[in-house]
Write a structure and sequence with these properties.
With about 260 residues, the protein is an alpha+beta fold. Helix content is about 50%, strand content about 20%. The strands form two sheets. Strands 3, 4, 6 and 7 form a four-stranded antiparallel beta sheet that branches. A three-stranded antiparallel beta sheet has the order 1-2-5, with no helix packed on it. A hairpin with a 5-residue loop joins strand 1 and strand 2. Helix 3 runs antiparallel to helix 4 and helix 4 packs antiparallel against helix 5. The longest helix has about 45 residues. About 15% of the residues are buried.
């Protein structure tokens, strides 16, 4: 009987010890959340002059995750708290993954904001606990202007569409030519703008190619403006023998104005 009671006592001790450990997990999370936020603040100071938003934001989220990732799949005394913590950490990882790209595009930014908003929501849920000690509003200190991103994305998509149409106009460009008494070959062609926008400050280069496709000469012309619906005659001359011509556009400084 004494042995049986000893076994029960041992089991009860183990059970209570386990409960105590789970309770400690709840308290420890909030303590680590506070210390992690201090580390995060230091990281923000280090990257505040960084021009690369991807690099700086990633450094901040990495600090946030590093201090708390040990609580992934941890047992909490309060199951609701435990689930909120798991959801929060999941969204921190998702923010990092959205930023993990060589060139951050508008779709990446929108994906980031979707996960960022969820992360903020879970942090605000955690803020209802009296053990939550983060500075008010600090959970939402990496917000981006969603409306501006949408506007910029629409503008970029419109620009891409206009450039695609102008490339189609360029592909329709053909030249007619003849050789004069001095051995010069004179060519001319017409470039039209059917993009729906006025195009300004770009350069067109005509490459003269031999039968093997090698460049034997080239000439460039800066176009100040080619209005929508306008057609411009292009004229070039060369003393080199060539088999074909290849037009090319330099749009680095292109200005697009919709009428």
């Amino acid at each position: 009987m004494r042995k049986f009671l000893s076994i029960i006592g041992l089991a009860l001790f183990i059970f209570l010890g386990g409960c105590s450990q789970v309770q400690k997990t709840d308290d420890a999370f909030f303590a680590d959340l506070a210390s992690t936020w201090q580390d995060r603040t230091e990281t923000m100071k280090k990257v505040e002059k960084e021009n690369d938003i991807t690099k700086s934001f990633k450094a901040i989220f990495e600090t946030e995750l590093k201090g708390l990732e040990k609580y992934e799949n941890a047992d909490f005394e309060d199951p609701e708290l435990g689930q909120t913590v798991q959801n929060y950490l999941k969204e921190v990882r998702a923010c990092l993954e959205a930023l993990d790209t060589d060139q951050l595009g508008y779709d990446d930014l929108e994906n980031y904001l979707n996960h960022y908003d969820k992360r903020v929501g879970y942090l605000k849920e955690l803020s209802k606990d009296k053990r939550y000690v983060l500075p008010e509003g600090s959970e939402d200190d990496l917000a981006l202007d969603r409306e501006q991103i949408k506007k910029d994305k629409a503008k970029a998509e419109e620009r891409t569409d206009i450039l695609k149409k102008f490339q189609e106009d360029l592909n329709k460009l053909s030249f007619q030519g003849s050789k004069d008494a001095n051995g010069q070959t004179n060519i001319s062609g017409q470039l039209s703008n059917t993009t729906g926008a006025d195009l300004a400050n770009f350069t067109i280069t005509i490459k003269f190619l031999d039968k093997d496709g090698n460049e034997v000469d080239k000439q460039s012309e800066k176009i100040d403006v080619l209005k929508n619906g306008e057609t411009k005659e292009l004229k070039y001359s060369t003393d080199k023998d060539f088999a074909s011509v290849a037009p090319d556009l330099n749009l680095d400084n292109l200005e697009i104005n919709k009428p």
